[in-house]
Amino acid sequence: MKRASILSGVSGTGKTHTRTTDPELKDLPHLDIAEVYREFPEFDWSEALGCLLKRARKMLVDDLKVAGAKVDVRWFWAPLEVCVQRISDQWERGEISAAECRRRIELLRDCWKPQDPLAQDTAT
What does each of the 124 residues of the chain score in pLDDT, given as a tens digit? Predict the structure, then answer.
C-alpha cells in the first residue's frame, strides 16, 4: 500500500530535519509551509495553513503517487526558544534570507502556544 506522511508543527520544530534524515520519509512526496510563506509573504499563519491544507487535499486526491495512500500524521513541538534559535541558525548558515528569518520568527511568536498541544490536561 502507498504511504504518505504529514509532518506538522510551527517553524523550527524539526520537521524538515526529520523528513530529510529519516530513510522512510525522505523519498515521499511532501508539502512545506515554508514554500507557502515564500510564495505569499503577506500571509499570516492561519492564511498560510489554509493554503497548505488546500494543497494537501489536492495532493491526497489528485497525485497518483499519494492518492489513496495510508496517511501518517505527526505533530512536532519544541520550546519557543529552541524554535527561534533553529530559525536563526538557518539564516546564519545562509539557508534563508534575513527577511525570511524575521518573518518566520514573527509568525512563530504570533501563533505560539506555550505548551505541547498533545500533552494531557492535568487540571481538574
Answer: 677 788 887 788 888 889 889 998 888 878 888 788 888 888 887 888 899 889 888 888 887 677 777 888 888 888 899 999 999 999 999 998 999 899 889 888 887 766 555 554 444 3
Residue 74 C-alpha from the chain's centroid = 10
Tally: H helices and E strands in the chain: 5, 2
> 118 by DSSP, 3-state: which?
coil
CA-based nearest residue to 116, from 18, 46, 13? 13
- What are the Cα distances from residue 43, in Å, to 35, 39, 70, 71, 124? 12, 9, 30, 27, 38
